[in-house]
User: Fold these one by one.
Assistant:
Number 1:
Amino acid sequence: MAPQAPSRKSADPTQAIAPQLLAWYDANHRELPWRIAPRELAKGVRPDPYRVWLSEIMLQQTTVEAVKPYFRAFLKKWPDVSALAAADNEDVMKAWAGLGYYSRARNLKACANAVAAGGGAFPDTETDLRALPGIGPYTAAAIASIAFNRPAAVMDGNVERVMSRLYEIATPLPEAKPEIRALLETLVPNDRPGDFAQAMMDLGATVCTPRRPRCMLCPLRDDCLALAHGDPEFYPVKAAKAEKPARRGAAFVAVRPDGAVLLRKRPEKGLLGGMTEVPTTGWTARQDGATESDAAPFPANWQKAGNITHIFTHFSLELHVFRAEIHQIATPNDHFWAAADDLHGEALPTVMKKAIEAAIPGATRKPHSIRPKRPK
DNA sequence: CAGACGTGGAG
DNA sequence: TCTCCAAGTCT
């Protein structure tokens, strides 16, 4: 027995990460509508998989603040997965309107249908979760760990950033993902894996931020290689991104004397799939400004009402908005009239609300529940 | 694998 | 104004 160097296990950074992070998480708990209070969690209460799933889908590429009201509204309308499965597709799209990435809503409904058809219980393993529509590697791991206490490697944008800095990963994203995942797997604890995952994401969201990280407040500052070497903000290294092209088109807001507006439904697939719109021309890259009213869906006294611009992920759009008062025109095929009072409840994406607002200011605003204009 | 796919907030 | 980007997934 040759004498070994003294055991330094307690000083092994890898072993220390999870406990340090969890201690920080416990001391900095964030109240979120889909989270179980620490007191309940300590008693062994598990989160409702339906709520975990719903929140995770909504949180994909979407900020916490944007999700909160939608999460509450969905939970009130559809308290469990069987209720959501029994809902109309159209009602789900209407409830999702404004949140973006509408394929998520279609997949959400498809997933609810699948789970309900299978008895109403969500799968409790990454592999089985991954097979459901709208659930990719991240969401499968998140649900498995948070709802079912499984030690899965939950890797989102926050975790990638934290790990890139902690280990000073020089490989650019997304190429570095496998490398980061391998390191992450060495950190995931068997005890409280769900809290570990949420702690990593909270840390990325509140301390290890993309710009101006608050390293002085970081529970992992003593282990962070990027900080030790001086420039955490430099990480993660990312590949250069492409320029976004510009597109133009015209939108036509037809208004009846009673204030109703002519709408139609977009194709199920593709941009704003399954959502509602006002009639528009195609959105082309042409720069000649030829978005004239002669391209209107039908002849009318089209008046220019203004221009709106909207930035999508991969292109910018300028829409020339035209308005016309319509009296006796037959409703075109596949179109419908939405009453003025119902506009705010239609499945209108933000870009379409902007177009309608340009023609009829205030038209898509949700009316106040209290109307203090009662006669005496 | 790279591109499609929304929106609103922060700096 | 403008760039970045937020708890990604699908094709």
Number 2:
Amino acid sequence: MTRVAIHDRIRREIEDRIMSGAWEAGHRLPPEHALMAEYGCSRMTVHKAIDGLVDRGLIERRKRAGSFVAAPKVHRAALEIPDVASEVAAQGKEYRLGLISRIEREADQRDRELLEIAGGPVLALHCLHRADGKPFALEERLISLVAVPAARDADFAQQSPGAWLLAHVPWTDARHRISAIAATRTIADRLAVPQGSPCLSVERWTWRNDARITYARQVYPGDRHALVASFLA
Amino acid sequence: MTRVAIHDRIRREIEDRIMSGAWEAGHRLPPEHALMAEYGCSRMTVHKAIDGLVDRGLIERRKRAGSFVAAPKVHRAALEIPDVASEVAAQGKEYRLGLISRIEREADQRDRELLEIAGGPVLALHCLHRADGKPFALEERLISLVAVPAARDADFAQQSPGAWLLAHVPWTDARHRISAIAATRTIADRLAVPQGSPCLSVERWTWRNDARITYARQVYPGDRHALVASFLA
DNA sequence: CTCTCAATAATGTATAGACATTATCGTGAG
DNA sequence: CTCACGATAATGTCTATACATTATTGAGAG
């Protein structure tokens, strides 16, 4: 086999032409038959190369019409939202979890909205993630006990709710909301930052087949934390 | 042809088994030959189905060993960072661009760091994006005139730097950094928010083949703006 | 018991051909 | 001139086969 796959080479070359601006948005690329002749390979191979670019959102295909360079790219980035513990570990610091409160209750108004459920028991947790002893992030977590009854018996003093859920509960969809908030008095106290200081809030809703499993809100001191996202390959 | 592609059906079914937890992380899936028999299709088709799951990060393949359900990934989400103008338009508001300052200068220390260049001329812009007349976001923009000489002649009073660059300059890579900051006096004045109030800062570095083209920092009032990311298909 | 190395089982890539699907284009009827 | 519709050119999918690549496994040598 050749050192580098033919479809990879074709993909790369087309990608380059797009990225370099030689082929602008809307440009129609040669039909697969032409590329097939140009590269001296089979149509399947050309097709696979273009498949890759379609997946990456660089090309759109229309039957009979041809394949076209996709419209002006919006900045789309892959945001990795790691488990807090691994995040702390990645910084070479010692992670410690502190469970502030754990309440099992019948879903109140706010719970019902956040979990999009009609009712039923929920588990409400508050914890403080520490790095080298210092407050790192605050987490508020709601778990629908209807969807995840096993959470009732989990020991969240040992394993963070996020880690436990990741390991025990498969999910199919998640949505995140990132915003900047001012530290309320409670947040300020727990994170040991001045009241009103800017904090990064990352909220996450997690679904499993249309049923919401859990809601989480993590709050980081604004001056000590940032989310990084890279271009989506 | 069948209504739904065979490879799509296979992909879907495997996906379901993973998502439902039936196949946990590390589970080895049947060899392609087996699936080929199970679905009564050719190996290429099975392979293509799995290809899709590999792209989505759900499966890892190892030659000779087999294909395995990938370890529970951290939450990876697709973050779409739209052009400010379209963002405002999407909210049904009237967008207006205000150019605060436009300075062409020899790169100073900070410019050099942000653009990762040794020197040369840069264009520094400050603008205020407005929605229905009210301040919406503040933008600081640095453009390397070495990389993008055409920017010298662009009319940034008409078209926002982001939109102009998107349309005129192809880029190959971008990195984002999202954090929460406190409004400095200047920011507070321009955004018409109290000094010290939390703001969402989105910084973006854009590359074109290893050369940095531009740096941008957009600052949004924290209470009026959030970034939303969905699970990465 | 351990190491080496060849057989093997899995994925990785590619081909050539077939038929399906669909939007476009041109032509002919009105 | 307009419209309908069939021919056509493109992509979409699939098959059967072939050979490449690679890590594991197991057998044999030491």
Number 3:
Amino acid sequence: MINFILDPKNGVPLYRQIINQIRFGIASGQLKSGEQLPTVRALAVELKINLNTIAKAYKELEIQSVLESQQGTGTFISSTKVELNHDERAKKLTDTCSEFLSVTNAYGFSHKEIIEKLKMMKP
Amino acid sequence: MINFILDPKNGVPLYRQIINQIRFGIASGQLKSGEQLPTVRALAVELKINLNTIAKAYKELEIQSVLESQQGTGTFISSTKVELNHDERAKKLTDTCSEFLSVTNAYGFSHKEIIEKLKMMKP
DNA sequence: AATATTGTACTAGTGTCGTAGTACAATAAT
DNA sequence: ATTATTGTACTACGACACTAGTACAATATT
């Protein structure tokens, strides 16, 4: 189970906040393989947003093989472990880091400086 | 002097590409304090885009005290060294890192993993 | 079989962003 | 003074993103 919290004035789109929280839930072990997620309608009511917003989040995660949806049944955490799409994962890391370096580089932050900061921010 | 290169199908807005290249030019020492940048019209012709796109980039950098513009004269690299706004700089790094960690965290990348990757990508 | 529950498809409205067109204002050059 | 050059202001248009409303289709339940 998972408790969703949305911040409408966050700048981050609602559907993306949902995606992130699900991904984090899985990564942190809070959500386990095969577990059922709230139905789009139930979550829509709970969060007081439109059901399509939930559906959009679910769908994107389904495309990424993180979730599995079936009409009339529900949406579940994919049984095939996420670790499987090793290439996708590696690419994501590379892309994210690349963009990150591009920005920090433009601002003149050195490699050392960046890594120091990241180590400090370890949550 | 500096040679601008724009990639329209990059996803990154043109005005932002200009901003990044100017910032990098300064950070890398390629652009020096007091140096004049191309006029909005000259650069617009050279890059075959609208002059307002250039103006938008210049303006944002002027707000950040990176550039100084004067009507009828031109746009110049700010004489007061960028190092001065120490706080802004620190905040920028914190914010950028924070967002970066937020994304990587959602995808389940560990702190170690991230830092290893960044070290590898050292250009 | 009939009904309820679930995800899906289609449409539309709203807002924002990026870029461009055009006219204006300030400074420099003649 | 007049003209040229420079940045600026205003408007508008197209594209896209985000969310919502509503109807449809598939599965489960009774």
Number 4:
Amino acid sequence: MYERKVIPNLNCGLDLIGEVLYGKWKIRLLWFIDQGHKRPSELQRKIPDASRRVLNMQLNELERHELVTRKIYPVVPPKVEYSLTEFGKTIIPLIAALGQWGDEHQDRLRDAILKQIKTSELDDTNQDSAFYAVGNAPPST
Amino acid sequence: MYERKVIPNLNCGLDLIGEVLYGKWKIRLLWFIDQGHKRPSELQRKIPDASRRVLNMQLNELERHELVTRKIYPVVPPKVEYSLTEFGKTIIPLIAALGQWGDEHQDRLRDAILKQIKTSELDDTNQDSAFYAVGNAPPST
DNA sequence: TCAGATAGGGATAAGTTTTTCCCCTATTGC
DNA sequence: GCAATAGGGGAAAAACTTATCCCTATCTGA
């Protein structure tokens, strides 16, 4: 397994929530589990762009962070169900709010994101580098 | 500059907000800019763990995503000020809510995160792998 | 007998982000 | 002439995340 070489800061609330939500698919996992899609195979069908492997890894992390629990049924073929913990449930309204903000501004966001992806430094028409071109008032340091 | 090889999904609001907030320091940048720390050097002092380079890169992205604007004063030494756009301001309440959630649960979160970092598979006392050990009831597929 | 469903992990490769180091601008002060 | 200041970017390395491939195991159904 990969071992971190840089220990994260855990000073403020933003650091902390950043740690537990960081990961390409975690928010979606929480969301779908909350919607009642509990079994790993269901989640994998819901999030087909993610590899099976990574979903497992991120589910493990969510479990270690106590946002979800994993229940193993001793049957065969195996059956496993994830559920949100009470703690995990408290984060759902935040995710909902994020999703809603994104939905409300989706046209604008999509535009800006696509524009940014495409024009990764193709254009030269802006003269950012005219710092010293005009005046010479002292900076208000 | 690095060029993406995998184009991101932009289907739902969560995808979109994920794109614009993804980046180790972006949320903090937005937060501090909102608090009135506008100049790059101020921001760098506020976020000493980030390299200067990365803050610039992420500020650029925030600008391209229209969450902040950059005002250049043609003086010397250079003076630059970032401000939130009206659009950028609408995301602040969300960030505040995230930070608050993190603060409210900080002890629990810190515990869980540190535990997870330290016990990256050191312990062998759990028997996860007893899938087929017990019964044989059919799975409720 | 062999594919498929179910759940998961190890090893390695590929992709992406962040850090580090060094360079540039132009002026002021020593 | 040299350092400090303020803002910024290129190149390469390091750190980190995600994808790919292949393996475990048992039972069902074709």
